User: Fold these one by one.
Assistant:
Number 1:
Amino acid sequence: MSPIVAPNTIDFISHSERQTIRLGARLAPFLQPGDVLALTGELGTGKTRWVQGVCQGLDVTGIVNSPTFTLVNEYRGRLPVYHIDLYRLAGAAEALTFGLDDYLYGDGVTLIEWAERAADFLPDNYLSVELHHLEETRRRVVLRPHGDRFLSLLNDYKKAVFTR
Ligand SMILES: Nc1ncnc2c1ncn2[C@@H]1O[C@H](COP(=O)(O)OP(=O)(O)OP(=O)(O)O)[C@@H](O)[C@H]1O
Ligand SMILES: [Mg+2]
């Protein structure tokens, strides 16, 4: 694997489930209405854990779990939160019929698991969160900004979390 990392990305290792949740939670203070997080990674890499962390940081009370019978769960914390999981998406057309656009351009924070399935529909500004399985309890997490909004957000996050 190339050690060269694209500029402006954050690439780190989470050593535990708790750490992944905490790193998600620490992103929450920087989020605003309309922000979109696109999560990718194989089964069981920690996408839902990351979402749970973000929700915790946004003061969502109640259970946060992937929607099973629908494609989206809605929560309410400091902001409305739309938790979308496209694992069961039948095809690109369905992305539009369930109203993906309304969430993406809505008034809340939208978190999408299996976001690669809706790649064509993502807005100009979004943060991609890529999770990779390394070992039993170790995951590589790559945060990649798309658009100016997340370029600056990621700088703020980096300062808050990785400098002391
Ligand atoms: N460092 C880590 N970060 C996150 N999860 C971890 C870590 N180490 C171990 N785990 C375990 O990996 C699993 C991650 O589950 P999670 O539901 O978050 O994955 P997912 O990517 O959402 O899967 P799916 O594709 O099925 O939705 C949990 O069982 C968790 O305990
Ligand atoms: Mg999941």
Number 2:
Amino acid sequence: MVARDDRLLTAGAPRTGYGRRMSLSADLQVRRLRYADLAGSRTLGSEAYGSSGAPAPLPPEEEWAASPGRSWGAFDGDTLVARLTVFSMTSWFHGDRVPTAGVAGVAVVAERRGEGLLRPLMDAALAEARGRGEAVSTLFPTAPGIYRGWGYEIVGSFDAVELPSSALQRVAPAPGVDVRRATQADLPALAGVHARWSSAQNGPLARAEAPFSTDREWLEDYTGVTVALEDGEITGFTTWDRGQGYDPRTAVIQVDDLVSVTGGAARALWRFLGASSSVVGRVRVATSGLDPAWHVLPDLTTTVVRTRPYMLSVLDVVGALSGLRLTPLTARLPFAVRGAGLDGAFVLEVSDGVTAAAPGPSPAAAAGEAAREAAGAADRPVFSARGLAQLYAGAQSAANLRLAGELTGPADDDATWTALFGGRQVHVRDYF
Ligand SMILES: CC(C)(COP(=O)(O)OP(=O)(O)OC[C@H]1O[C@@H](n2cnc3c(N)ncnc32)[C@H](O)[C@@H]1OP(=O)(O)O)[C@@H](O)C(=O)NCCC(=O)NCCS
């Protein structure tokens, strides 16, 4: 028998702390999935997301137990009625590697949707993530409204963008940059290039953990991984699948990564992708945000063919806001957070950009909760949980949060908040 944490949680009396309607059965139980639940969970998943062809055989128990992800289920009696999976990931934010709970595979059985079954399931999975020190959580929603109650807000998107191969032949040449096929020996250099690019952004996974690790298997997954070299040093790479056929009207090369740390590497890699134009008419690239590698393209022949919004929530205010290296300013910023269970007053101390956050009750707190509530707005700015998520990700300025009603109270520190958290673009390049 494989040891798994199958801690049983009983939803018990429904929580109404966030003003939500609840009609849950008292028999509802929320717990980590066991191997015996796997077939039912798969059926629920394929009914929710659709599946093509015959289902893959179930993995042996040992293999399942070793797979990444913590799967949770809600059970009405013995029947699985909702499930989700949480991946422990590391993402880059403000130059720091941040422990992140990536939520995926959320599904409620069709006949039971709208009953509020997701609430106890998400609450249990996020409580566990918090306990493991995961300071933020991210996910790709099918509808953002599902997750706003937990403080998630859209901070970026993962897109598929197509370009005609012929356009790539017009990219300016890159003298002094060579391209060649990557080998296993290049893996550390590829990881180095990825870290250099991703540490300069907010949001990308560090690709430190399965199933996102850039290891031997990852390299073998592609038709090819091609690197750009300058003076013998790898300064960029692209991971690509050739796709089917040689009719340029229909054939497409699929590119998962085009990562470069110099303009020359970007030009060389785009030209490499365009070199198949006699047999492949289009290149479809997985990308996000405004990436400098795209600024070497000479024309406007790109088409966004799919976009997947990315949401973030802060799970732990003190954990998420401490130890960051922000814009090198020194400031003391009292603030409060409302909603999604993050409610409280805090102070952010910033010393030459390095942050330390701590609970910091307002002076009125001593006079009691009612007085604090009354004084709260005048005392310090108040972020909604979703406003804090957007600020943290560097996705919105304080001014924009005010326009959306996600930041209220004194505005004296708005410019400082914006200066501290702005300046990095939001990117995400791994789907889960
Ligand atoms: C999405 C899904 C899990 C929601 O299940 P549900 O039983 O309706 O969830 P709940 O009743 O617990 O509602 C949770 C919240 O989601 C909101 N919600 C549910 N469906 C929604 C939709 N299609 N669009 C926007 N919001 C939605 C509810 O209004 C509720 O919001 P609140 O917290 O502000 O009250 C379910 O419809 C499903 O399995 N869909 C198919 C698969 C899917 O889309 N999964 C999500 C992948 S990211």
